[in-house]
TrEMBL record, chain A:
CDD domains: fer2, FNR_iron_sulfur_binding_2. The keyword Transmembrane does not apply. Residues 290-373 form the 2Fe-2S ferredoxin-type domain. This is FAD-binding oxidoreductase. Residues 43-148 form the FAD-binding FR-type domain. GO terms for molecular function: 2 iron, 2 sulfur cluster binding; metal ion binding; oxidoreductase activity. It comes from Alkalimarinus sediminis. In the N-terminal section; belongs to the FAD-binding oxidoreductase type 6 family. It comes from the Bacteria. Its cofactor is [2Fe-2S] cluster; FAD.
Automatic annotation (TrEMBL), chain B:
Coiled coil: none annotated. Residues 66-332 form the Fatty acid desaturase domain. GO terms for cellular component: membrane. One of its GO terms (biological process) is lipid metabolic process. This is Acyl-CoA desaturase. InterPro entries: FA_desaturase_dom (IPR005804), Fatty_acid_desaturase (IPR012171). GO terms for molecular function: oxidoreductase activity, acting on paired donors, with oxidation of a pair of donors resulting in the reduction of molecular oxygen to two molecules of water.
């Protein structure tokens, strides 16, 4: 028979653990006190302090950050989620880490490189408001756009990096890692920017290509040379079909670059890419039709641009939660993943950053996907 | 109360009135920003400090005075959390901030009332059907008779006792509101229908009870009894305060009730108008408003439930101007005087209706 005393202690310990973990009690308050003393002490959020800000080009800056001691490190090519508060609104964006993993191992520092986007709230805020000494809330590193270990390929496929604009950031981190680990390895970088002034990391790239004997670097300027072509690719990298490709840049660029590479005989399984660049809102018209996808149920339905998300969900055979159906009670809140909606009460476009929307007053403008309802 | 006042404004006037209120709402929404974020964070900070200090004082007090101060601080923290923070966050007033901690659909407050159930009974039923008899179950909380439209029964003679009990156990009353005991009694619904709710409620209540009445006292070891009593008193204070504030919002003398048929096919203008007539404000200093979660601006709260409540004072000035313009009564007064009319109303409707005078005044010549 079990000892009743040990049973009781076990029970009390479970209770105590639950008590500790419960939102709004001990742990919340302890974390509150710690962050009141210094935000870096928070156990719940990952806070990073801005150590240095470097101007890369006229519209690109690198921010060197020191994450709190709880932050767990990264693999070259990964990104972090950066949270900023702009006029009371929390905005989250993913930015690739642009430094080598060594910098974090040795000095506990990381860097992100941010291009200021016309009308982009987060990037403008980081560029114009952030100063050395400020803190940011960041997420753990994630993403699987990382250097593949050459396990199966014999001899290992040489990496080919193709980047456009600020798509260079994760690739920069990868190249630096190669420089530290296998500086002799033969690698190529094809980098597209508008003009020489827009070349991010120019001097760093020049230095790298000098110190790495087998690093070939091909910058291209679309203003004078035009967009990426198969001929150009073939010229820069004649053995493209034997390479492992790492591709990063704006959506349109990646689409044509990957098509060219496949044409030139690159195997699809050796192509790794990271989508990048900001979402440009399409010119919308109220009454714009589109397709609505409900991701958690896999259902979808066509919208004529007149019905609300709630009505559409119901016509799609779903059973969403609702109350007043008139925008008062917020019972119908759902999470939008991509796309735009119009507020039926005000006729205004709901900003892209607002991910929680009221289904009963939101009318989709074009295609939309709803994460959970 | 007469319930047909809804139709004294012309349709045209009502719609203009509604449009002007919509415009006011838009203006404030466009202006939301750092000021509002700072306000709620500042209140959260104060609430946390006072809860930490309150619990510490209750635990470690060496004399009754510091213990009483601890109870006071813990009561204040609980009131702030329930009123200015919890209630308002759950209305979606801060959803625009995109802050997961302040999201209306996930916030869980410090009372035995489960927030999911609250969002359903309060945000939806009460705010959509405000003061519509038979639809707004917050009207008298199914235990009080506050209008002659509800038939008098002898048990109403003792409704003051009910009122006292409801206030003392207010969090339990609110928590169990969704149980709809009156429908269970009449057989309209069965216990089985209510099983999911009962499960949710038990879970939340157990969490609250174990926190305030088991674990915190246990942490104090031999001083457990004073912690237990201190926590109990803090909950009691919060109950009495919140019930008083809420009663002043809808059950004052001039707050009106409506019949379901009056509100059919209601337009936005009519909805605003009904919210206005069914609610009442009270005046006071800044902290009285904050401690009441700005429900002292019940009228504005009912018209704009999802706008950050600390905006109500500035909106109220404009609402009052509109009321003057359209000659609509705006029900306000000091806290004391409004509360007196609540008590008077409870007392009046404990008694059967007086034989009423003929409805139409007799026409007599000069
Ligand atoms: S159902 Fe009430 S706000 Fe949408």
């Amino acid at each position: 028979m079990q000892n009743p005393l040990s049973n009781a202690t076990q029970y009390i310990t479970t209770l105590a653990i639950r008590f500790w973990q419960q939102e709004g009690t001990l742990q919340t308050y302890l974390d509150f006190l710690l962050s009141e003393i210094d935000p870096m002490l928070s156990r719940k959020r990952n806070v990073a302090e801005v150590i240095q800000i470097i101007d890369e080009t006229a519209d690109t800056k690198t921010f060197v950050l020191r994450p709190s001691s709880r932050w767990q490190g990264f693999v070259a090519g990964q990104y972090i989620n950066v949270e900023t508060e702009i006029n009371g609104v929390m905005i989250r964006r993913n930015y690739s880490i642009s430094c080598a993993p060594k910098l974090f191992r040795e000095q506990q520092l990381i860097s992100i490189t941010v291009k200021k986007i016309e009308g982009g709230r987060a990037s403008t805020h980081l560029h114009e408001r952030l100063i050395v000494g400020d803190t940011l809330t960041i997420g753990l590193a994630s993403g699987d756009f990382t250097l593949q270990q050459p396990i199966s390929t014999q001899p290992p496929a040489k990496p080919l990096f193709i980047a456009a604009g600020s798509g260079i950031t994760p690739i920069m981190s990868m190249i630096k890692q190669i420089k530290e680990e296998t500086p002799e390895q033969s690698i190529s970088l094809i980098y597209y920017v508008n003009n020489p002034q827009a070349l991010i990391f120019e001097s760093q790239l020049q230095t790298l290509s000098k110190s790495m004997p087998n690093f070939s670097f091909y910058p291209h300027f679309t203003e004078s040379e035009g967009y990426i072509t198969s001929q150009q690719l073939q010229l820069d990298c004649p053995d493209i079909a034997e390479r492992t490709l790492y591709l990063c840049g704006p959506q349109g660029f990646m689409k044509s670059a990957s098509a060219h590479c496949l044409d030139l005989g690159l195997a699809p399984e050796r192509m790794h890419q990271e989508s990048f660049g900001s979402y440009v809102p399409a010119n919308f018209q109220p009454g714009t039709a589109g397709q609505i996808r409900f991701l958690n149920s896999g259902k979808y339905i066509e919208s004529n641009g007149k019905k609300t998300v709630l009505e559409l969900a119901e016509s799609a055979g779903l059973n969403p939660k609702y109350g007043c159906r008139s925008g008062i009670c917020h019972e119908c809140k759902c999470t939008k993943s991509t796309g735009q909606v119009l507020n039926r009460l005000t006729g205004e476009l709901i900003p892209d950053d607002q991910t929680h929307i009221q289904a009963c007053i939101s009318i989709p403008v074009g295609d939309l996907s709803i994460e959970s309802l | 109360m007469k319930t047909n006042i809804l139709h004294t404004l012309s349709h045209q006037e009502l719609e203009c009135f509604g449009d002007e209120l919509d415009k006011l709402r838009q203006e404030v929404i466009a202006d939301l920003g750092k000021r509002d974020a700072d306000h709620i964070r500042n209140i959260i900070q104060k609430q946390r400090y006072s809860e930490i200090a309150g619990r510490a004082l209750i635990h470690f007090s060496l004399n009754p005075i510091s213990w009483a101060a601890g109870v006071g601080l813990l009561s204040t923290a609980k009131i702030l959390e329930n009123m200015e923070i919890g209630h308002n966050v759950m209305h979606g007033q801060y959803d625009w901030m995109n802050d997961p901690q302040l999201n209306s659909q996930t916030y869980e407050w410090d009372t035995v009332c489960d927030s999911e159930s609250w969002r359903n009974t309060h945000n939806f039923e009460h705010h959509t059907y405000t003061n519509i008899l038979g639809k707004d179950r917050d009207y008298g909380y199914a235990v009080l008779r506050l209008t002659d439209d509800e038939p008098w029964k002898p048990r109403h003679l003792f409704q003051f006792i009910n009122y006292g009990l409801l206030s003392i156990f207010f969090q339990w009353g609110v928590g169990l509101h969704e149980l709809e005991t009156e429908k269970l009694r009449s057989g309209e619904i069965t216990w089985k229908d209510k099983l999911p709710f009962i499960k949710r409620f038990t879970k939340k209540a157990a969490k609250q009870v174990s926190k305030d009445y088991i674990l915190f006292p246990l942490l104090a070891g031999p001083a457990a009894p004073k912690v237990l009593i201190g926590n109990m008193l803090a909950n009691l204070n919060r109950n009495l305060w919140t019930s008083t504030i809420i009663f002043c919002g809808h059950f004052t003398e001039k707050a009106q009730t409506f019949r379901e048929d009056e509100c059919e096919n209601e337009t936005r203008g009519m909805w605003y108008y009904r919210q206005l007539l069914g609610s009442s404000n009270f005046t006071g200093g800044k902290w009285l408003h904050i401690m009441s979660g700005h429900l002292s601006y019940q009228i504005e709260h009912h018209m704009f439930p999802d706008i950050p409540a600390h905006r109500y004072p500035e909106m109220a000035t404009k609402v009052q101007q509109l009321c003057e313009k359209y000659d609509i009564p705006y029900n306000t007064g000091s806290f004391g005087s409004q509360f007196k009319t609540v008590l008077a109303r409870i007392a009046r409707y404990s008694l059967p209706p007086k034989k009423s005078a003929p409805l139409s005044p007799s026409v007599s010549g000069p």
